[in-house]
């Protein structure tokens, strides 16, 4: 388990650190091969990519302020590669095994009086954050539908203030609930 977690971390870092187009194509092909090996439903992968697409577009648009368009496209592609790999990783490994493996990996931090179990739980929540975003997008679509607003690229750009307010308000609410539940379980987050 520790080896798989280290591989996931190394893979994610490599994707973000390497700026070669051919290497990114290689990472994309590797993701496709993993999907075929683990027989992950292609519809679930497409749904995962579509759900993270809003976040990716937001990062792309924000990055346009500071970087040229090609760099922004590369960053968006990297985000999609890593989130897709995280989806494959979390589909194959159970959350309990993942938490145990992370706790063992971080055990040396006890020397510095850091509780590895707390960090492991927080990292597992971070990996499940994609699912949280998916749920918030569903909620957003339902709330927009109730206001007779269709959710597409046109509404995304013309009514983006409504979309961002609803999305982030619900997201912060969900994070707040998770924080309270962790505190009730005895974790000191502050």
Automatic annotation (TrEMBL):
Keywords: Membrane, Transmembrane, Transmembrane helix
Cellular component GO terms held in the UniProt record: plasma membrane
Source organism, top-level taxon: Bacteria
Topology relative to the membrane: Multi-pass membrane protein
Localization, UniProt: Membrane
Annotated InterPro entries: ABC/ECF_trnsptr_transmembrane (IPR003339)
Keyword Transmembrane helix attributed: yes
Transmembrane segments annotated in the record for this chain: 49-69, 75-93, 114-133, 153-172
Name of protein: Energy-coupling factor transporter transmembrane protein EcfT
Provenance organism: Candidatus Caccopulliclostridium gallistercoris
């Amino acid at each position: 388990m520790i080896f798989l977690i280290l591989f996931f971390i190394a893979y994610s870092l490599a994707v973000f650190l390497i700026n070669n187009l051919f290497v990114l194509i290689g990472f994309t092909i590797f993701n496709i091969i993993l999907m075929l090996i683990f027989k992950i439903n292609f519809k679930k992968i497409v749904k995962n990519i579509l759900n993270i697409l809003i976040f990716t577009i937001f990062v792309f648009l924000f990055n346009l302020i500071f970087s040229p368009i090609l760099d922004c496209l590369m960053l968006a592609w990297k985000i999609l590669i890593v989130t897709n790999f995280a989806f494959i990783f979390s589909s194959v490994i159970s959350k309990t095994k993942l938490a145990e493996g992370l706790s063992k990996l971080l055990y040396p931090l006890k020397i510095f009086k850091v509780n590895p179990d707390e960090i492991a739980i927080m990292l597992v929540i971070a990996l499940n954050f994609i699912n949280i975003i998916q749920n918030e997008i569903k909620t957003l679509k339902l709330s927009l539908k109730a206001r007779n607003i269709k959710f597409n690229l046109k509404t995304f750009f013309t009514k983006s203030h409504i979309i961002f307010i609803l999305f982030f308000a619900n997201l912060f609410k969900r994070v707040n609930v998770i924080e309270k539940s962790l505190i009730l379980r005895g974790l000191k987050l502050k």
